[in-house]
Write a structure and sequence with these properties.
Layout lengths: L1 E6 L28 H9 L6 E6 H10 L6 E5 L4 H17 L3 E4 L5 E2 L2 H16 L3 E6 L9 E8 L6 E7 L4 H10 L2 E11 H11 L1 H13 L5 H8 L8 H10 L4 E6 L3 E2 L4 H7 L6 E3 L5 E3 L5 E3 L4 E6 L2 E6 L6 H6 L10
Parallel strand pairs: 1-2, 1-4, 2-3, 6-10, 12-14, 13-15
Antiparallel strand pairs: 4-9, 5-11, 6-9, 7-8, 7-9, 8-10, 15-16
């Protein structure tokens, strides 16, 4: 299995820690001395034959610096075209180099606490993918969260360590998420997809032929002297699609998608509530403020605000609560004009 690691987005719900020029995959949010993209490459090394990290041109050099000493290759995309183009390009490059191989896409900015369980799930997903399925790794839910997409499991696959996927649903309301948790049939969608390159590119040929043609042409030129010319010509013309809607959802309706359930201590660190769950950082002074979390270089006192979140950087201060952590993105959306430099 060859690993594909999309490293994009700014992580705006983690502002002001995460910025356009310092997105969360470049940060050490887990506190283990490594950036998140480096931790992802290290985690995949025991179960992969190589890794392609797909990131924007503005971050490519920093990503390469952080991956020094690994065999991972950085693929720089000229502009964001969403996950399908990024994953599809890497898959097309690998298909061009190695033929029909199994690839797995894993986000650069997620945390996994149990590497043993992760490796077992990846190996199972590779086995299922080799049989021709687009295979996702679903996370056993621990709460009725409306911040994640859900995967409905169907019947077990014959002689394979997975189950059929009935359908995907993106971020249901809390009441629906509670029903899903109670049913025991639903898993969180962590955006991990494992498949043969022939299956992925074949699905694109059928469902999005223009995108497939463009990716194949870029991949054919990737290791030659015309890479930059072909990339500059074709990349801006590619459709902006996410992999879930582009191929996973339509193929699930035909029985072509499978899921491997896993409980691996996964988190997408999608907001400060999730970041706080990784490890308590209590304020220097707290009174009636259970669950308060502070990131600052000076003493901060929190009084009477349970679940408070206070984040200080040299040029900005955020004050919110865990309950309102998802709303932080709205602040970033307002940073324009004279405040655009804070994005």
């Amino acid at each position: 299995m060859y690993a594909i690691i999309p490293a994009g987005g700014a992580g705006s719900r983690l502002w002001p820690l995460s910025r356009r020029d310092a997105p969360k995959f470049l940060l050490d949010l887990a506190g283990d001395g490594r950036s998140m993209v480096r931790a992802t490459v290290d985690r995949l090394a025991p179960v992969s034959d190589g890794a392609l990290v797909v990131t924007g041109e503005r971050h490519a050099r920093r990503v390469a610096d952080q991956l020094a000493g690994t065999s991972a290759e950085v693929v720089a995309e000229p502009s964001p075209r969403d996950s399908m183009a990024a994953i599809g390009l890497a898959a097309a490059i690998l298909d061009q180099r190695h033929g029909d191989v199994v690839v797995g896409s894993f986000a650069a900015d997620h945390v996994v606490r149990d590497d043993v369980a992760f490796h077992a799930a990846v190996r199972a997903a590779v086995e299922v993918a080799a049989a021709g399925y687009i295979t996702t790794i679903g996370i056993t839910p621990t709460e009725p969260s409306s911040a994640f997409g859900y995967i409905e499991q169907g019947a077990p696959l014959a002689d394979l360590p997975g189950r059929a996927v009935v359908r995907f649903e993106e971020k249901p309301a809390t009441a629906r998420a509670e029903e899903y948790l109670a049913s025991g049939r639903h898993l969180w969608n962590a955006g991990m997809f494992v498949m043969r390159t022939s299956v992925l590119l074949g699905a694109l040929d059928e469902l999005h032929p223009g995108l497939a043609t463009g990716l194949r042409r870029i991949a054919a030129a990737w290791d030659g002297p015309t890479r930059e010319t072909v990339l500059a010509e074709l990349w801006p013309t590619l459709d902006r699609l996410v992999i879930d809607r582009a191929i996973a959802e339509p193929l699930a309706e035909r029985g072509g998608v499978a899921v491997v359930p896993a409980d691996m201590g996964w988190s997408d660190i999608g907001d400060f509530a999730a970041l706080a769950e990784l490890g308590e950082r209590p304020p220097a002074f707290a009174v009636d403020a259970d669950g308060a979390w502070v990131h600052a270089d000076r003493p901060v006192a929190v009084v009477g605000i349970p679940g408070a979140v206070v984040v200080e950087t040299p040029d900005a201060i955020l004050v919110t609560t865990r309950e309102h952590a998802q709303a932080v993105k709205a602040v970033v959306d307002q940073l324009d004009g004279p405040l655009d430099h804070l994005r």
